[in-house]
């Protein structure tokens, strides 16, 4: 375990915590207070750290994801869909006129762009909530350019999907979806901020 | 306060908590256990709720933002920059080869796109961390298409900046930056997921 700590830089108490929470498999015992760890342990530790630090995922969500990967009943396609849903935590909007308006607006957008409407999806429910919240705080200007944002998001989705094209390994495919979605959100958000500084100067100076 | 609760749907204990934490001004006392609240209180309550629910901001960060708005020493431009920095919580990368590689990669990207390099910025530091984490978990494929992601992010920044063009009111400008950045991240992330479902079908079925 001292070696694991040295290789990954993750503190030993954190490694123990990850093992206890079922995020990382225990090592193969080789004696009292001794265990063997493999490259697979190092890989998994680094993955969990990246998801916590830059993916914004909670330990509970990561545990759910790992349970899905370790469930042999799930076919690859269903596994990917399940992983995607787990990473996307839904926030349901409050019922009321803002919600109704947001739902209509989202339907129009999805129809216009030819996107699938799946009202039960966490992303769908969160989208309704975000649109309702923007309306409620008086940001109709953002709603007016919703289609522009959607077009940029579609471009990002194309880049995302281009990357999982020829992955054959089931576990690796899930890793790619999970990292791509969660850490990918942080990547896009961060690039957006870096771009804002420059675009702002171009436009206003 | 019962009326505030009725208008906004925010539970009274939550309203009291926001007032106690300095996020919302107290009402004008009109008697024992009675106070007057204005439209401004309703507006502010809805703003705080949107930032908590869909902007992913903590109470402490929102308190910092409000302190900046209420600081008359800050000029509008500095206020916007300060607000933007406060919304962007930096996560510094660990020193080491992954960090060094990420920094080189980010410099190349910024130079290629003509984006400003401000190494102290929270967004810059987080970008280095995200790139290092992606490298460390074996997602070089995402790094290979970094420029594509950056191009899409630049498009989003152009949409963002187009919206604050003719806002003259100082407080309203901050509101726009704060909502646009924090709730905007959730909007983009959510649209990305909705698009992925459709793009995935187009590509793979």
UniProtKB/TrEMBL annotation, chains A, B:
Top-level taxon in the UniProt lineage: Bacteria
> Mind telling me which PANTHER family this protein's record contains?
HTH-TYPE TRANSCRIPTIONAL REGULATOR ADHR, REDOX-CYCLING DRUG-SENSING TRANSCRIPTIONAL ACTIVATOR SOXR
Give the SUPFAM superfamilies listed for this entry: Putative DNA-binding domain
In this chain the HTH merR-type domain maps to 1-68
* Keyword DNA-binding annotated: yes
Q: Which GO terms describe its molecular function?
A: DNA binding; DNA-binding transcription factor activity
Name the InterPro entries for this protein: DNA-bd_dom_put_sf, MerR-type_HTH_dom, MerR_fam
Instruction: Specify the protein name.
Output: MerR HTH family regulatory protein
Tell me the classification of the organism that encodes this protein. Bacteria, Bacillati, Actinomycetota, Actinomycetes, Streptosporangiales
Keywords recorded for this protein, A-Z: DNA-binding
